[in-house]
Amino acid sequence: MLPVVAVDLGGTNIRAALFPSDQPKPAHSQRALTRAEEGPEAVVRRVIESIEALHPESDSGLRMGIAAPGPLDPAQGIVFGAPNLPGWDRVPLRDQLASHFGCPVALGNDCNLAALAEWRHGAGQGVHHLVYLAIGTGIGGGAIVNGQLLLGAHGLAAEFGHMLVDPSAPICGCGQPGHLESLASGPAIGRRFAELQAERSPAGIPADGYSASQVGKAAAEGDRLALQVIEDAGTIIGKHLASLVHAFDPERIVLGGGVSQLGEMILGPIRRAFASALMHPAYRDRVTIATAALGDDAGLIGAMLLAREP
Amino acid sequence: MLPVVAVDLGGTNIRAALFPSDQPKPAHSQRALTRAEEGPEAVVRRVIESIEALHPESDSGLRMGIAAPGPLDPAQGIVFGAPNLPGWDRVPLRDQLASHFGCPVALGNDCNLAALAEWRHGAGQGVHHLVYLAIGTGIGGGAIVNGQLLLGAHGLAAEFGHMLVDPSAPICGCGQPGHLESLASGPAIGRRFAELQAERSPAGIPADGYSASQVGKAAAEGDRLALQVIEDAGTIIGKHLASLVHAFDPERIVLGGGVSQLGEMILGPIRRAFASALMHPAYRDRVTIATAALGDDAGLIGAMLLAREP
Question: Of chain A's two ends, which shows fewer C-beta atoms within 10 Å, N or C?
Fold first, then answer.
């Protein structure tokens, strides 16, 4: 089987790995800081350096798969721009890499590709219909419909964090009000805890606010306010998952991203809200919620799978 | 081409038609009152009588397609029950008809089948990705994903009226709070107008409330309150369509159902709210909103198409 180079371009890290087969085990892997603030040219140069550090032999029928934050156009190979990639505006990343390395390159949305990876090699194996939600700095999604990755007409589908759930919710990172992401992402959880903490004891709030894992730590130590904030986030996530089940009727939901790693303190409220928000018993018992199995590697493995598609 | 009998079982009417080909032109058609209040046995008997009135020759390789309100299980041929079909609880409609007529029968969700019909013969022709919303007594949906009707794992997908859009919205017909249907269906529009009218001039409200078309008539005659109610419904529909575009990335949205026939007074607010709620310019200009072309025949034509599927 021909080798594939996969890259996961994130706002913090660029990860690259050489996969000798379609199994999720890289022969070599490589991590570099993105330093997104230096702009697209510098970041694309670092992507190239990361790939070169793997010493792939470009005359061996090599293929490359790149996972990048959406929205992007997989058919044209263009990254439209993302909040955590400042300065990116319609960057033709696919063709830049293809012309540099002289090999075929495929580009995909990182969350879509994570869904593909979890379906083939992770917590979504064995089903034909899957909904994936990645709850982290943002909330992204992916779906398998009838055994195929859902891309939509232009590769812009499955933005499940950017759907209206509550018109009174804060403005989302995308600029629209009321989206799930503005209520239940990691930063949303930290922000909400800081707001409530400010009412309780204004002196104790760190200058750079709280992360979701700090709120989780406080909750684990018995802070009822922290626990409430996490429960509220879990509840709205669970309700939204019910909406997604009404829309997609999947056999399995897979939850990834750092926030889902808070464990039962958020998974419990998610499951309870989900079960009670389903519109009809016909849905219940026919769909299971699982946590992602591939961790941070999901995007990278999905990029490898994308590159191997015919 | 072998003939197909199609039936559209609604809460008010049972419609049946004999289609000699896959074109949307029936050779004969037939309409009877459902009289749903008499319960499933009487209704199934009337479905059978409606079919018999078409004089189909059952020894000629006849097939039948039935559109019924969801949720239902198309694989098992079972209607789980619907608010406008009182007393229906897991009725094996497909097998009842198949054993009576001795021919293959296919069962599908009426809105899913309307989407299929609009895609093949109506306002959705020529695209591979379509979202259909039927705004009437309830709000139902259908979708074409990658050139295939979206059914989900159990035939329960595309319930786009039953997705959370506002936790403060009234309880929906399905029993859950906050769904689009509770804010923008025909009865929701009539109810909201009655509430506001009660504040303005309590004496003038008819005992059985208002229908959406009465509200539309009042709006057309210059009643600002009526116009506002319709604009509000259009606005939340438009915002939800943006969410559906973020989820499905279709090329076209088709709007059916009686409420969409209110014309520009609701389509204008829908389009405006939709355009301003899209999360990124990449979506804009790549999706068009059209009104359904097949009218009340969409479910019937969809049932005919379903029966012809291999």
Answer: C
Q: What is the pTM of this model?
A: 0.96
Candidates A76, A132, A163, A244, partner chain B, best to mutate (most B CBs within 10 A): A163
Count of CB atoms within 10 A of residue A60's CB? Answer: 9
Q: Do A175 and B279 touch (CB under 8 A)?
A: yes
- B248 and A157 within 8 Å at the Cβ level: the answer is yes
- Interior CA angle at B269 toward B266 and B273, to 5°? 140
Task: Give the closest residue to B5 by CA, choosing from B43, B55, B77.
Answer: B55
Q: Encode chain B (310 residues) as per-residue pLDDT tens digits.
A: 889 999 999 989 999 999 999 999 999 999 999 999 999 999 999 999 999 999 887 667 899 999 999 899 999 999 998 878 999 999 999 999 999 999 999 999 999 999 999 999 999 999 999 999 999 999 999 999 999 999 999 999 999 999 999 999 999 989 999 999 999 999 999 999 999 999 888 777 888 899 999 999 999 999 999 999 999 999 999 999 999 999 999 999 999 999 999 999 999 999 999 999 999 999 988 999 999 999 999 999 999 999 999 8
- How far apart, in whole angstroms, are the C-alpha atoms of residue A68 and residue A82? 9
Q: And the tokens for B47?
A: 């479905």
CA-CA distance, A230 to A207, in Å (whole number)? 21
Residue with tokens 């790939």: A51
Q: Pairing state of beta strands B148-149 and B105-109?
A: unpaired
**How do residues A115-133 score in pLDDT, each as one tens digit?**
999 999 999 999 999 999 9
Q: Is B156 on the interface with A (CB under 8 A)?
A: yes
A4-113+297-308 and A125-292 have identical folds = yes
Architecture of domain A4-113+297-308: 2-Layer Sandwich (3.30)
Q: In what order do the strands lie in the sheet with B130-135?
A: B148-149, B139-145, B130-135, B252-256, B288-291
Q: CB-CB: which of A152, A167, A168 is closest to B250?
A: A152
CB of A181 within 8 A of CB of A138?
Answer: yes
The pLDDT score that the predictor gives to residue A176 is 96
Q: Output b/e per residue, B191-230; b: 16+ Cβ within 10 A.
A: bbbbeebeeeeeeeeeeeebbbeebbebbeeebebbbebb
Which element (helix H / strand E) includes B78?
A: strand B78-79
Q: Is the peptide bond before B167 cis (omega within 30 degrees of 0)?
A: no
Domain limits, chain B: 4-113+297-308, 125-292
CATH topology of domain B125-292: Nucleotidyltransferase; domain 5 (3.30.420)
Q: Are B2 and B61 in contact (CB under 8 A)?
A: yes
Contact B194, B210 (CB under 8 A): yes
